[in-house]
């Protein structure tokens, strides 16, 4: 059985639904497998599986202008791959964009290839002036997702939530 | 064929379509024919106009979406063609104006000038209908057929590497964005024609 937390994934998914999210774009990675499956099995959700994460910025921009709330699911390396789209589409055009970013490469990371991207993720978010917070405990998942979406919509700008190891990974 | 003539030829039928264009010459030329509130010009983020079109087409199946793309832009998002094909929005017509160059930054040749075939790439990605056209008449016919077919279509229109004298227009980016959003909100409650 995968050590990715099904219970935490369910909490996150239910909070996205409660925030009115009807379209999720995703590029699957290990920590996101349950979330992608939940979206795939939900007839009320439009799931768009991407070839590269930056596409999701354009898809979410289109969905927003069309009146549908959306969110992006990606690894932090996918966030790194999306930067021009975030700046030149979402920020330039004041598009609310809820990004859920799996925070690989922080304390506890065993995959050497994840460590470099982990080290620059927060600095890059700050450099882009993207408001962000952490999802690292089940008890604050629901209200942080709701508040992040509230700010994205009131500010008309991208916001990020970092999905942390303590929430997503059940291995001891 | 000149891109401006191709745009002018299909302009009357854009009246009830949701239109997304790329930056530069395509945006400036369409505006020179006449801006409408149902036109959105993505003035940066090269490659993402087709992704925006997909986002609109999937969430608004009641509307016909038209994307005016370019060779330089789609070459930056070839993976997006596989995503388009995967979800196959039947209400999306994807036009790629291929002038084989990055005209707005000085005319440097793109890979389509050395043989890369965007219609063939789109077909191989799984886009169900593709065509390459070289005259205004053929473009108009292909465009009208794509709308009538009600299926995802990529039309590559080979055009001359000429464009407007300037690319900045008096339509502010955010003015365009909010006007376009209001248009989509307004037509939400109206039946598609």
Oligomer status:
heterodimer
Strand line-up in the sheet with most strands of chain A: 2-1-3-4-6-5
Low-confidence stretches of chain B: none
The total tally of domains of chain B equals 1
Number of strands of chain A: 6
- Text of the CATH class of chain B: Alpha Beta
CATH class of chain A: Alpha Beta
Cα(first) to Cα(last) distance of chain A is 14 Å
SS elements, strand count of chain B: 8
Sheet/helix structural class of chain B:
alpha/beta
Provide structural commentary.
The complex is a heterodimer of chains A (172) and B (193). With 172 residues, chain A is an alpha/beta fold. Chain A has helices at 6-18, 33-41, 54-65, 76-81, 83-91, 115-127, 141-155, 165-168; strands at residues 23-26, 46-49, 70-75, 97-102, 132-135, 158-163. Chain A has a six-stranded parallel beta sheet, sandwiched between helices. The radius of gyration of chain A is 15 Å and the shape is globular. The two termini of chain A are 14 Å apart. The model of chain A has no long low-confidence stretch (mean pLDDT 96). In chain B, strands 2-1-3-4-8-7 form a six-stranded parallel beta sheet, sandwiched between helices. In chain B, strand 5 (101-102) and strand 6 form a beta hairpin. In chain B, helix 1 (3-10) packs across helix 2 (25-34). The N and C termini of chain B lie far apart (31 Å). The mean pLDDT of chain B is 95.
List strands and helices in order, with pairings:
The complex is a heterodimer of chains A (172) and B (193).
Chain A: H1 6-18, E1 23-26, H2 33-41, E2 46-49, H3 54-65, E3 70-75, H4 76-81, H5 83-91, E4 97-102, H6 115-127, E5 132-135, H7 141-155, E6 158-163, H8 165-168
Parallel strand pairs in A: 1-2, 1-3, 3-4, 4-6, 5-6
Helix pairs in contact in A: 1-2, 1-7, 3-5
Chain B: H1 3-10, E1 18-21, H2 25-34, E2 39-41, H3 49-59, E3 65-70, H4 71-75, H5 78-87, E4 92-98, E5 101-102, E6 108-109, H6 118-125, E7 129-133, H7 136-149, E8 153-158, H8 173-186
Parallel strand pairs in B: 1-2, 1-3, 3-4, 4-8, 7-8
Antiparallel strand pairs in B: 5-6
